């Protein structure tokens, strides 16, 4: 039963960190991009996708090892290939609104 509670607390911790980090990053990016170009509402969804991918890499490679839940099967870092793919895709998604604005 203790393992269930620690897992539940860890999920709550992860969700709070996700909401805070993605909200702060998204707002900073939105302010920077909207000062340089016309802002469309769907750009926020593109930024959200990129920020969630970057948070996933940060959580799986760093933050999960400092939480409450310990399990051998879930406490693995992402492979180097997956990490670089997610980071690249996240950066591409974050830059996409600027490219879309520039194109048309």
Structure description:
By secondary structure, this protein is mostly helical. Helices cover 76% and strands 0% of the residues. The protein has 3 helices and no strands. Helix 1 packs across helix 2 and helix 2 packs antiparallel against helix 3. The longest helix is centred in the first third of the chain and has 35 residues. The radius of gyration is 16 Å and the shape is elongated.
Question: Layout of SSEs?
Answer:
Layout: H1 2-36, H2 42-61, H3 80-103
Helix pairs in contact: 1-2, 2-3
Proportion in helices: over 70%
End-to-end Cα distance, whole Å, is 56 Å
| Radius of gyration from CA coordinates | 16 Å
Mean of pLDDT: 90
List the total number of helices. 3
Poorly predicted residue ranges: none
Defining key terms:
104 residues; mainly alpha
What would a concise description of this structure say?
The chain has helices spanning 2-36, 42-61, 80-103.
């Amino acid at each position: 039963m203790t393992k269930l509670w620690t897992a539940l607390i860890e999920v709550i911790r992860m969700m709070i960190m996700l909401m805070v980090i993605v909200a702060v990053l998204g707002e900073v990016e939105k302010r920077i991009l909207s000062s340089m170009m016309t802002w469309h509402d769907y750009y926020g969804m593109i930024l959200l996708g990129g920020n969630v991918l970057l948070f996933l890499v940060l959580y799986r490679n760093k933050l999960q090892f400092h939480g409450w839940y310990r399990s051998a099967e879930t406490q693995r870092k992402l492979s180097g290939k997956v990490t670089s793919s997610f980071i690249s895709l996240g950066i591409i998604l974050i830059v996409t609104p600027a490219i879309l604005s520039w194109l048309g």
